[in-house]
Amino acid sequence: MNRRAFLRRSAATTGGAIVATSALQRLTETASLAEEARGKGRGGGRARRPTVERSQGYGDLRRMRDQRGVEVLALPGGFSYVTFGWTGSQLKSEPGQHPRSHDGMGSFAGPDGTTRLIRNHENRNAKGVTTLGVPANGVQKYDESANGGCVTIDFDTNTKTSQREVVGIAGTHVNCAGGVAYQQAGWITSEETTAVYGEKHGYNFFVPATGDGKQKNPAPLRAMGRFAHEAVGVDPRTGIVYETEDAGNDSGFYRFIPIDPANLAAGGSLQMLAVKNDPNYDAIRNQQIGTKLQVEWVAIPNPDPDLTGVGGSVFDQGADAGGARFNRLEGIWWDAGRESFFFNSTSGGNAGYGQVWEHVPGRNPNQGGELYLRFESPGKGVLDSPDNLNVTPRGGIILCEDDATGGDNDTHPLAPGLENVNRLVGLDAGGRAFEFAVNVLNDSEFAGACWSPDGQVLFVNVFGDATPDSGMTCAIYPPGGGWGTALL
Q1: Are 348 and 328 spatial neighbours (Cβ–Cβ below 8 Å)?
Q2: How far, in Å, CA of 392 to CA of 460, rounded?
């Protein structure tokens, strides 16, 4: 099903009030989409057309201009947005430019009623190349040869303006996603590489959300593992950190049991998810929606391998002990209502367009927990390559697309002239997928969806490239009636 055909379809409506449902219900009810679409999928033909109609979501989308007059997003009628922190623009509060490659992001209560955003920059510059890298302004770089890191921004949602912009951490590399630390203390930023420049990479780092928002002396959290990190989520009940890996078909799902949840640098133990009584479980294809898989955890003896020889990677250690295999695990988010985590597999599933999994952890480290496949995309028109994920303040789910492949060359009627167009896709109260936003500026992914502390402003990044103004952060505002309770 191509995207044009998908957009032409209309949803059936009901006369009664729509009742808000949990993220679990939304995904469970959407399962019929995937079960109807066991076609050949990506690169092997067209998946069968699902019979469930497309939701209208918040209504039809239209191209809109930001405060500069530039058309960046298409949104439903009544919504509006502003953009800031554009690639190559001057930082407001210290020397240097906003770096390239805006990616994962966390939000916190900032000073004077602002929202503090800590934004990753997935800079893949070659060793020593500083073009649009993260400058070292008042912080010690972890690696002088690397130019990734984070920018800390204090944004006033009332005046719709950025008040303060500083470097939060510098000298890291390929900062992809991450997650909010225990008790909202800061942002755990994650490196999606195990490259060696001046220093080894492939670690998590902590950036404080308090004070000036700067990590002046960055140190890798080695006990949390050295691998191609994507995102992390923290169980607020236990402080256990769950981690996703983006390494193709050799990707694992991990948990880190810290000695002190408030001080990850104190160390702890790293473990990999395994399916009980089914060692080396392959979760990539031929999965059944809603089937309960009992989970156990296997130890990673050496979480910080040198990776100079054959084998011995974190994934290999886990697989040798029976750990499960996923495809390109990406975003993860805690659902407080369900007391569970939702996480994405970008290219998993029989059609190859992505899966959404739910892990229900035990209440103590001795309990393995449960794993469920909750959604599998039947085709690119429904959902194409989910990356970052967010469980919204109202219990909805929003998914950031990262259709970076050229194999589909799919287009969108709202973005003429562009191929591989990316969207924010939500799930409605009936469990049906709907478009909430379309990037009409370029073919960059969406990333870093998060909310202001009052849950009323949605922030999201357009990734961009090394071209000035190609990447930015967007603040999206609802109509006067707000977001409602049935959707996002």
Answers
A1: yes
A2: 13
Q: Read out DSSP for 195-254? A: -BSSSB---EEEEESSTT---SS----GGG--S-EEEEEE-TTT-PEEEEE-BTBSB-EE
The span from the CA of 34 to the CA of 431, in Å, is 12
Task: Give me the residue label for tokens 């922190």.
Answer: 85
* Pick from 292, 371, 383, 365: nearest CA to 326: 371
Number of helices (H), then strands (E), in the chain: 3, 26
Q: Tell me the mean pLDDT in the region 60-87.
A: 97
Radius of gyration of the chain (CA): 21
Q: Which residue, among 314, 370, 329, 331, has the nearest Cα to 232 in the 3D structure? A: 331
CA within 13 Å, CB half, 417: 3
Rounded to 5, what percent of the chain is helix, strand, coil?
10, 35, 55
CA angle 204, 206, 208 (to 5 degrees): 160
Please answer whether residues 148 and 174 qualify as being in contact, where contact means their C-beta atoms are separated by less than 8 angstroms: yes
**Least confidently predicted of 5-9, 65-69, 119-123:** 5-9
Distance CA 234, CA 335 (A): 11
Backbone angles phi, psi at 317, to 5 degrees: -60, -45
Q: Average pLDDT, stretch 191-209?
A: 98
Average pLDDT over residues 346-350: 96
Query: For 234, what's the count of Cα atoms within 13 Å in the CB-facing half-sphere?
Result: 22
